[in-house]
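Quick one, tokens below:
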């Protein structure tokens, strides 16, 4: 009978393979950019615009992908602790009671069947239609794959078990590592999509919570959107224009993106203005009580 921990080189093979995939800088950066794009694309789609209009950079996508990555990886880390605790319990019990212990043999013989059940559960969760299950489904499938490999590992430790060839085990570990990595990032993608949808869901009720913006310009900007007022101020021959009723949606690249106070799901306008437009000034206002006055500006 093997001593506890004597199979650590075998166990570490899968961990090393997953680590090599996950910590590859190029692959990780590309995946983070994709997650940020998935979040922004879903949010833009819910708002009725094309994501390409926002003109986001790779840095913008990276900043928007952090939370989408954090949640699935946190779940995977907690699951890893649970696996360690169970493996420690099984190893110690086997060392003390031997391979003839019914519980030791039962776990080793039927762990693969439990793993298949977990995988099927993950598939079922993915089709349930809820945001939580949409995110959890791929993670549960990934956990099932790891359990399947762990079950094969336990079964091979029983007396009289026939081990597969080293090549077959290497291929099995590599395939499992790839599918687990896919499951984790698939879950992260689903989380990004859900997050984008949540950000846009009920946006009509959230408009008033966005930062208010006044746009002053030396030339008419012809901003036409529900709830936007165009004001003018004459000083001799010079006329300045002020547009009120705008809310800051986002800033990406060299543009500000605004929506208006009366934006609705049925009719909403997204206004794009360059951040450094000539003769243009942006004033960001927090005025929930409506105390700000227009001064010398009057309707044009």
């Amino acid at each position: 009978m093997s001593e506890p921990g004597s199979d650590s080189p075998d166990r570490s093979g899968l961990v090393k393979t997953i680590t090599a995939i996950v910590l590859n800088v190029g692959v990780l950066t590309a995946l983070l950019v994709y997650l940020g794009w998935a979040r922004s694309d879903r949010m833009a789609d819910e708002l009725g615009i094309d994501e390409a209009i926002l003109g986001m950079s790779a840095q913008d996508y990276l900043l928007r992908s952090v939370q989408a990555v954090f949640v699935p990886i946190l779940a995977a880390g907690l699951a890893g602790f649970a696996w360690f605790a169970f493996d420690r319990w099984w190893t110690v019990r086997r060392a003390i009671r031997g391979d003839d212990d019914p519980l030791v043999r039962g776990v080793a013989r039927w762990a693969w069947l439990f793993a298949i059940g977990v995988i099927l559960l993950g598939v079922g969760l993915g089709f349930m239609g809820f945001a939580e299950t949409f995110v959890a489904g791929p993670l549960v499938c990934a956990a099932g794959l790891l359990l399947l490999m762990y079950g094969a590992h336990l079964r091979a430790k029983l007396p009289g078990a026939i081990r597969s060839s080293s090549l077959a085990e290497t291929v099995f570990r590599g395939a499992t590592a790839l599918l687990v990595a896919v499951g984790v990032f698939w879950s992260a993608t689903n989380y990004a999509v859900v997050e984008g949808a949540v950000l846009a869901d009920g946006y009509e009720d959230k408009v008033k919570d966005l930062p208010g913006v006044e746009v002053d310009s030396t030339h008419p900007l012809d901003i036409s959107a529900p709830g936007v007022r165009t004001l003018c101020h004459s000083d001799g021959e010079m006329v300045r224009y002020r547009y009120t009723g705008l809310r800051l949606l986002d800033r990406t690249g060299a543009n500000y993106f605004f929506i208006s106070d009366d934006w609705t799901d049925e009719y909403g306008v997204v206004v794009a203005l360059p951040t450094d437009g000539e003769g243009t000034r942006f004033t960001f206002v927090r005025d929930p009580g409506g105390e700000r006055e227009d001064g010398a500006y009057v309707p044009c």
